[in-house]
Amino acid sequence: MEYCTQCGKALTRDEVAVTKKLVNRGATSFQCISCLARHFEVAEDDITERIAYFKASGCTLFEAPEASE
Helices 33-40 and 44-56 sit at what angle, rounded to 10 degrees? Predict the structure, then answer.
């Protein structure tokens, strides 16, 4: 399990993936959504929306979007 390098929170696969997409594909340390938002000086919702965009685009770094029933 990975942990945020800034606050120590346990990270989800999506948080690891978005760090790789926004910071560096070869990153070995990762940040949670809150810390990434502070780093980029944007709202947390902006990071969450970017995750949804990458998922919808089919990026395999992210967990697959849940199928609609």
Answer: 110
